[in-house]
Design a protein that fits this description.
The complex is a heterodimer of chains A (about 500) and B (about 170). Chain A has about 500 residues and is α/β, with parallel strands linked by helices. Chain A contains 17 helices and 13 strands. Helix content of chain A is about 35%, strand content about 15%. In chain A, helix 2 crosses helix 13, helix 8 packs parallel to helix 10 and helix 12 crosses helix 13. Chain B is an alpha+beta fold. The chains are: A alpha/beta (about 500), B alpha+beta (about 170). The interface between A and B is small, with 9 and 7 residues.
């Protein structure tokens, strides 16, 4: 892997397209340009986007997604069985038409201008999804490259439309199987080609977690509105899909990007809320890095990361791609300083909150401003490197709750199990248990414990755990009242257990 | 058969020519009829020539939300009228349209007056925002010209923008 300085700077992916590229894109979509003819034009745009990044001092570069219509619809060109359909064509199949109309009003766009990659037949690869992009980019830069790919949840959710896709795939789960296989193969191909970083884009996860009112949803998941699943089930499914995609793939940095939508410069209509509701899921995704939006007040407090500190790298959004004023490097440094309470210096990468041109036709900034923002980021990284030196330096110690006699650290818990035969009891919800658990633990959801108390052994210590140790602390108190005197709570929960590098399954 | 925007150009020219020669031949186009039958609750069925459609109210107005309501049909009617007008005026000028979509939003002056809860203002639309999205190669000044003529010659637009003399009669049967 590439040698990187501390606080590597990178982008989320997209860069504003020049007008001549947009013209070529329209011609390509109308069938007036061949794949090859379009590539030749887009290659020039990629080189421009690359030059901006290199001149700004970005360490890990992207191709600016110049060859894509947007960050996920581009798969249409690479897959058989997928057709770029306008919302106008899909209107009759939409389960929630009110939602579509309101979304179009938000976007100030007609239904014929919004396109969705829709599965119309079994999907099959025509050509690798992003290998052409990666190869061209790597021929023209010595820096490590990042390739963003649409995540399996986003792809499945957006491409499967009831009434259109169900003849090829009766359910979304059926489509998900093919999507997972496809993305796995792509990541392996990109790794073998020498790509440093693959980022899976899953922007809709915030929409699922926050269950926003219809006015602030995006169109990316027309079917989302009709989903009958609870947010937790939906997020658990998304997490499973991501883990199926990345399971066992080594030799490449893998990240997941979750933002709150990047389709308008009107901050007032974009989603708001911290990452708290997502962290139980993010913390069990088998990726190295969370690429998150943290530059705007809409992203909430950094403190939500406390129970999960140090578990993953943070691709920290430090500039807002949608504003005209450029963040000062000192501001960025101050923001990173906050993050250092929860992440080690070696774990923090700097990036904008999102791309600068997520949708080809509606970039959120000009290349000039985008450049100045990247520049500010690179300057902030320089300041931070001066403070921390060039070698990996440990940041402030990770915040841990003060241990009470009734709480045990992960190491103590492991010792209790080994030396005293203590019983580990998981009191989380079924979907959490299914995603990740401690080997050898038994499982009784906390709501069922009163009726299943007989299953808890009385002849040995019991160590309770949940995700971060809050729910299980309550249960531990109750269990002691029931006469289980040697009940302990695993401080910091499964997050602390994983941070201590103790084994989990699957 | 020459065709533009899905219209038969010769047929359109022929109709325009005939009406120009004999304005009286357009007389039947001056009168339109509709009949609306109550179906219970807030639901109604409209009978118009050989067509029927439903009218209802949304659930938050005690309706069953099985169909659009009357004021929504007004917006739909205006949108449809402007669509027809836009296509007519574009086609007359030889302008090809790839796509056209009109978004409308009406604001009632004071809905409380409809419910008999206020004497302020009136229960009609105070204003209707109309936005046309067009995909065409025609230049901006041509588009403006077509749009202006569409608005100024729209039958529904004129109905709304001018005062219509309502002639109400009630009959017990």
């Amino acid at each position: 892997m590439a040698e990187l300085p501390l606080f590597p700077t990178t982008v989320v992916g997209s860069w504003p397209r020049p007008s001549w590229l947009l013209e070529a894109l329209r011609k390509r979509q109308a069938g007036a340009l061949s794949y090859q003819e379009f590539q030749e034009i887009a290659d020039r745009a990629v080189l421009e986007a690359l030059r901006y990044q290199e001149e700004a001092g970005i360490d890990i570069v992207s191709d600016g997604e110049q060859k894509r219509d947007n960050f996920y619809s581009f798969v249409t060109e690479k897959l058989e069985g997928v057709r770029l359909m306008t919302l106008a064509e899909m209107l009759d199949y939409a389960e929630d038409k009110t939602f579509l109309d309101q979304t179009l009003r938000q976007l100030d766009a007609p239904s014929y201008a919004i396109k969705n990659p829709t599965v119309v037949d079994r999907i099959r690869l025509k050509m690798p999804l992003a290998l052409d992009e990666a190869k061209f980019l790597m021929r023209h830069t010595r820096r490590p490259v990042k390739i963003p790919l649409p995540g399996p949840y986003l792809l499945t959710r957006s491409m499967w439309v009831k009434g259109i896709s169900d003849t090829a795939y009766p359910t979304q789960e059926d489509l998900a199987r093919d999507v997972v296989a496809l993305l796995r193969e792509e990541i392996v191909r990109l790794r073998d080609a020498g790509v440093f970083f693959v980022q899976l884009d899953e922007p809709v996860l915030t929409e699922v977690a926050f269950r926003p009112p219809v006015q602030v949803r995006t169109f990316m998941c027309a079917s989302l509105a009709a989903s009958t699943q609870s947010p937790a089930q939906e997020l658990a499914w998304a997490t499973r899909l991501i883990n199926q995609v990345v399971q066992g793939i080594e030799g490449i940095k893998l990240g997941v990007h979750v933002c709150r939508g990047n389709w308008t410069t009107n901050e007032g209509v974009l989603l708001e809320g911290n990452y708290g509701p997502l962290l139980d899921f993010l913390s069990v995704m088998k990726v190295h890095q969370w690429v998150l939006e943290l530059a705007t007040p809409r992203a909430g407090e950094m403190a939500v990361f406390a129970p999960y500190s140090g578990l993953r790298e943070l691709g920290m959004g430090v500039v807002n791609p949608r504003t005209r004023e450029v963040e000062r490097p000192e501001e960025i440094v101050a923001r990173v300083w906050e993050a250092l309470d929860y992440f080690e210096a070696t774990q923090i990468y700097l990036n904008p909150d999102c791309g600068f041109g997520t949708f080809a036709e509606r970039p959120v900034n000009t290349p000039e401003t985008a450049f100045r923002k990247l520049r500010a980021m690179a300057e902030a990284a320089t300041i931070l490197r001066r403070k921390f030196g060039t070698s990996a330096v440990k940041a402030q110690p990770v915040i841990q709750r003060a241990a009470s006699p009734l709480e045990v650290s992960p190491e103590e818990a492991a010792k209790l199990v080994q030396e005293e035969g203590a019983s580990l009891l998981d009191v989380r919800e079924p979907w959490e248990w299914e995603m990740v658990r401690i080997p050898g633990a038994s499982f009784i959801p906390r709501g069922e414990l009163p009726t299943r108390l007989g299953e808890v052994p009385k002849d040995r210590p019991v160590v309770l755990y949940c995700a971060v140790g809050q729910r299980s602390a309550e249960v531990a108190g109750w269990l002691r009242e029931q006469g289980y005197e040697r009940t302990f709570n695993l401080a910091g929960g499964l997050a602390a257990w994983m941070r201590a590098k103790l084994p989990v399954e699957p | 058969m020459a065709e533009l925007n899905g219209l038969d150009l010769e047929q359109m020219q022929k109709i325009l020519e005939e009406v120009r020669k004999d304005p009286g031949s357009a007389q039947p186009l001056n009168t339109w009829n509709a009949r609306v039958r109550w179906l219970g609750g807030f639901r109604g069925q409209a009978l118009i020539r050989n067509h029927t459609f439903l009218i209802d109210e949304p659930a938050d107005l005690a309706g069953k939300d099985t169909a659009p309501n009357a004021v929504e049909y007004v917006l739909g009617a205006l949108g449809a009228c402007l669509t027809v007008g836009f296509v007519l005026n574009a086609t007359k000028r030889g302008v090809a349209l790839r796509n056209l979509e009109i978004a409308l939003e009406g604001n009632i002056d004071n809905i409380l007056t409809f419910l008999g809860l206020s004497q302020q203002g009136h229960p009609g639309y105070r204003e209707i925002a109309v936005k046309a999205y067009v995909d065409t190669d025609a230049d901006d000044s041509m588009l403006q010209e077509i749009w202006q003529e569409t608005i100024s010659t729209s039958p529904v637009g004129n109905t709304l923008a001018r005062q219509v003399a309502l002639q109400p009669v009630i009959v017990r049967v």
